[in-house]
Amino acid sequence: MKKLLIASLLVSASSMTLAKLPALSDDAKAKAAEAAAKTAWTGKVEAYQLCTVQDKVAAGYFQSSKAAGKETKPAAATPACTDPGAFVYTPPDAKPLEAAGAHSPAATATSPPSGKQPDAVVNPAKKS
Protein backbone atom coordinates (compact mmCIF):
# COMPACT_ATOMS: atom_id res chain seq x y z
CA MET A 1 0.00 0.00 0.00
CA LYS A 2 2.84 2.40 0.88
CA LYS A 3 4.65 1.62 -2.37
CA LEU A 4 1.54 2.41 -4.37
CA LEU A 5 1.06 5.68 -2.49
CA ILE A 6 4.69 6.70 -3.03
CA ALA A 7 4.53 5.78 -6.71
CA SER A 8 1.35 7.81 -7.23
CA LEU A 9 2.90 10.81 -5.44
CA LEU A 10 5.98 10.60 -7.67
CA VAL A 11 3.85 10.39 -10.81
CA SER A 12 1.77 13.40 -9.78
CA ALA A 13 4.90 15.38 -8.88
CA SER A 14 6.51 14.58 -12.22
CA SER A 15 3.37 15.61 -14.09
CA MET A 16 3.44 18.95 -12.29
CA THR A 17 7.03 19.51 -13.36
CA LEU A 18 6.08 18.90 -16.98
CA ALA A 19 3.48 21.67 -16.90
CA LYS A 20 4.11 24.41 -19.43
CA LEU A 21 5.75 27.48 -17.97
CA PRO A 22 5.04 30.95 -19.32
CA ALA A 23 7.55 32.44 -21.74
CA LEU A 24 10.25 34.66 -20.30
CA SER A 25 9.89 38.40 -20.71
CA ASP A 26 12.50 40.42 -22.57
CA ASP A 27 13.82 41.81 -19.29
CA ALA A 28 14.25 38.32 -17.86
CA LYS A 29 16.03 37.18 -21.01
CA ALA A 30 18.37 40.18 -20.83
CA LYS A 31 19.13 39.52 -17.16
CA ALA A 32 19.79 35.85 -17.90
CA ALA A 33 22.17 36.76 -20.73
CA GLU A 34 24.00 39.21 -18.48
CA ALA A 35 24.23 36.61 -15.70
CA ALA A 36 25.66 34.08 -18.18
CA ALA A 37 28.24 36.61 -19.35
CA LYS A 38 29.17 37.44 -15.75
CA THR A 39 29.55 33.73 -14.94
CA ALA A 40 31.82 33.22 -17.94
CA TRP A 41 33.91 36.23 -16.91
CA THR A 42 34.14 34.92 -13.34
CA GLY A 43 35.46 31.62 -14.69
CA LYS A 44 38.15 33.48 -16.65
CA VAL A 45 39.14 35.47 -13.55
CA GLU A 46 39.39 32.28 -11.49
CA ALA A 47 41.53 30.64 -14.18
CA TYR A 48 43.82 33.70 -14.21
CA GLN A 49 44.16 33.65 -10.42
CA LEU A 50 44.91 29.93 -10.46
CA CYS A 51 47.54 30.44 -13.17
CA THR A 52 49.32 33.18 -11.20
CA VAL A 53 49.32 31.11 -8.01
CA GLN A 54 50.69 28.09 -9.86
CA ASP A 55 53.48 30.25 -11.29
CA LYS A 56 54.37 31.53 -7.79
CA VAL A 57 54.37 28.02 -6.34
CA ALA A 58 56.54 26.70 -9.18
CA ALA A 59 58.99 29.60 -8.80
CA GLY A 60 59.18 28.98 -5.04
CA TYR A 61 59.78 25.27 -5.61
CA PHE A 62 62.60 25.87 -8.07
CA GLN A 63 64.17 28.46 -5.76
CA SER A 64 64.04 26.20 -2.69
CA SER A 65 65.33 23.25 -4.72
CA LYS A 66 68.32 25.28 -5.94
CA ALA A 67 69.03 26.46 -2.40
CA ALA A 68 68.95 22.86 -1.15
CA GLY A 69 71.22 21.78 -4.00
CA LYS A 70 68.67 19.43 -5.55
CA GLU A 71 68.68 18.86 -9.26
CA THR A 72 65.42 19.78 -10.98
CA LYS A 73 64.17 19.33 -14.50
CA PRO A 74 63.36 22.47 -16.47
CA ALA A 75 59.78 23.68 -16.23
CA ALA A 76 57.37 22.72 -19.00
CA ALA A 77 56.53 25.52 -21.41
CA THR A 78 53.08 26.88 -20.63
CA PRO A 79 51.23 29.88 -22.07
CA ALA A 80 51.45 33.12 -20.12
CA CYS A 81 48.62 34.04 -17.76
CA THR A 82 46.22 36.51 -19.35
CA ASP A 83 44.21 38.90 -17.21
CA PRO A 84 40.56 39.05 -18.37
CA GLY A 85 40.21 42.65 -17.15
CA ALA A 86 37.16 44.24 -15.61
CA PHE A 87 33.68 42.90 -16.35
CA VAL A 88 32.00 44.80 -19.16
CA TYR A 89 28.69 43.63 -20.58
CA THR A 90 27.40 44.97 -23.86
CA PRO A 91 24.01 43.52 -24.78
CA PRO A 92 23.68 42.36 -28.37
CA ASP A 93 21.49 44.43 -30.64
CA ALA A 94 18.57 42.11 -31.28
CA LYS A 95 16.30 42.85 -34.22
CA PRO A 96 12.63 42.11 -33.81
CA LEU A 97 11.46 39.19 -35.92
CA GLU A 98 9.50 41.43 -38.27
CA ALA A 99 12.53 43.63 -38.93
CA ALA A 100 14.51 40.52 -39.79
CA GLY A 101 11.83 39.50 -42.29
CA ALA A 102 11.12 36.19 -40.63
CA HIS A 103 7.32 36.43 -40.63
CA SER A 104 6.62 38.91 -43.40
CA PRO A 105 4.46 37.66 -46.29
CA ALA A 106 6.03 37.55 -49.75
CA ALA A 107 3.61 40.05 -51.30
CA THR A 108 0.20 41.50 -50.60
CA ALA A 109 -2.60 40.00 -52.71
CA THR A 110 -4.13 42.46 -55.16
CA SER A 111 -6.89 40.22 -56.50
CA PRO A 112 -8.82 37.24 -55.23
CA PRO A 113 -7.21 33.86 -55.86
CA SER A 114 -10.14 32.62 -57.94
CA GLY A 115 -11.68 34.02 -61.12
CA LYS A 116 -15.03 33.72 -62.84
CA GLN A 117 -13.82 31.19 -65.41
CA PRO A 118 -14.72 27.56 -64.80
CA ASP A 119 -11.93 25.09 -64.22
CA ALA A 120 -12.72 23.23 -67.45
CA VAL A 121 -11.82 26.34 -69.46
CA VAL A 122 -8.56 26.96 -67.61
CA ASN A 123 -7.48 23.29 -67.45
CA PRO A 124 -9.06 21.39 -70.35
CA ALA A 125 -9.08 17.63 -69.97
CA LYS A 126 -6.79 15.74 -72.32
CA LYS A 127 -8.58 13.36 -74.67
CA SER A 128 -6.94 10.02 -74.92
Give keywords.
single chain; 128 residues; mainly alpha; 52% helix; elongated
N-to-C series of helices and strands = HHHH
Distinct helical segment count:
4
First and last CA, distance: 76 Å
Q: Tell me the fraction of residues in β-strands, as a range.
A: under 5%
What average pLDDT do the residues reach?
82
Q: Find the count of extended strands (DSSP E, 2+ residues).
A: 0
What's the overall geometry?
Answer: elongated
Structural class: mainly alpha
Largest sheet: none
List low-confidence stretches: none
Describe the protein.
This protein is mainly alpha-helical and 128 residues long. The protein has a domain at 38-70. Helices cover 52% and strands 0% of the residues. It has four helices and no strands. The protein has helices spanning 2-17, 26-68, 97-100, 119-122. The protein is elongated, with a radius of gyration of 34 Å. The protein starts with a helix and ends in a 6-residue tail after the last helix.
Strands, helices and their partners?
Blueprint: H1 2-17, H2 26-68, H3 97-100, H4 119-122
Q: Would you summarize the structure shown here?
A:
It is built from four helices and no strands.
